[in-house]
Amino acid sequence: METRKHHPLYEAIGAIVGSKYVTDEDFALIPYSRDVSAFAPVKPGIVVRPGSTEEVSEIVKLANRTGFPVTLKGGGQSAGGITKGEPARNIVLDLGRLDKVFDIDVENQKVTYGAGIRPSMLDDALRDYGYFVHSVIGPYFTASMGGILSGVNGGGVNVSGGYNWRHILGLKVVLPTGEIITTGAGPDTNVNRTGIDYREATAPDLTNLFLSSGGAFGIITEVTQLMYPIPKISKSGSFLFSTMEDVWNVQLELSKTTPPLYSGIIMHDMPTMAKFGVRGVEGYGLFFSVQGNNQEDVDLRLKGIEKICLDGKGQPGTPEMVFYGAHGCTGTAEIVHEACSNSCPFMTWELAYPRKGSLEFCKKLLYVFDKHEEENAKYGASRVFYSFPIANAMLIGVTLHWNDAVPGAGDYVRKVWKEGVDFILKEGTSVCYAQGSNSNLVSSVWSPAFSKFIGGIKKTLDPNNILCPGLWNL
């Protein structure tokens, strides 16, 4: 019987992490060959699950010595496609074992955790202390925190808090050469520090270099993040609007309130509400939550929101809308937590667009999908649509689903998705996923000067082009 040949680095990697945490068996490689999207799979050569920053460093050093490329996997919930690298040679680093909470510092309101931890796990660890962190609403059980920060870095249930980067104090990163650094006010900006204390460092702030980079410049292994006390009071509400114009105007009006009257807010159209169990309504639903520690303050803010909604031609939501607001998109988020982890496969147009002109842009984007009515029916294709104000922009999301049992459905949705991305790029924005095929489309509209600058950073940090080669067309 012929002995099966292992990947050339099988023994060497096994010596670093232990044989139980490395595999090159086909049955194990296949799940690592794709994400939740319809993009073509990229089968790796070997998969390794390191258990520490130091093990990640040693693997990256080995890759540099031997010339094998390294690609990354967090929770596999990316919708941007797998980074191509060099198929059949790639070393996939699955960072899921880096899931420990290292320090919960209540006095300084910060937490340090491994990048492989899931949002649900981090919430569980902090809940006993009465704290939470700002992160995305979903995928709650599947995505890793490191993947969220390097792959999309979006908002959260409490969108009034803005994007995630505002809440990150610093990172521990393995560079493409295998060196380990910390960003923020940590041990590398003052050798007398033992941890990362705050974001403001007496040195250039490198944290943002690694956020939303897709892992092109370094591997995030640990995160130090602000944490906040869980509010004592949380109330939610909903309003129904007849037209997209009315609900959009109300969103914009609410976004002007300073400080924001709402903690969380999101809009859905009728088909999307139906997917989440809100049926028997026509129009557009606006869902919101208000959180605080003072009942009078919470009630005043709710009244302020209700006045703006009523003045904007809204009607109080139905009982089903009230339930979804309390347990779904803006309340406990339980419904959305479950939906995100059970809604695969999908592709998405999720992006930020300037508030001015956002309604007209959104209508045109929806038409890219809706105009294919006959083909959508043939392939079981449908969409989920949402929007909310965040920072100084509107976040617009259109998630595409299809019937994977229908031959050609994946190819069809991929074609429609590309049509939408072409429109998005021409309108001056881009889908926010910093992974695989999507990153290459985003970088296709970079200016020559910016491309040269980013390429120079990549070449300096990664002289052998070992880490995620091809990401951002680098």
UniProtKB/TrEMBL annotation:
Residues 39-230 form the FAD-binding PCMH-type domain. Pfam families: FAD_binding_4. Gene3D superfamilies: 3.30.465.10. GO terms for biological process: lactate catabolic process. GO terms for molecular function: D-lactate dehydrogenase (cytochrome) activity; D-lactate dehydrogenase (NAD+) activity; FAD binding. It comes from the Bacteria. Keywords: FAD, Flavoprotein, Oxidoreductase. Belongs to the FAD-binding oxidoreductase/transferase type 4 family. PANTHER family: D-LACTATE DEHYDROGENASE (PTHR11748), D-LACTATE DEHYDROGENASE, MITOCHONDRIAL-RELATED (PTHR11748:SF111). This is FAD-binding oxidoreductase. It comes from Calorimonas adulescens.
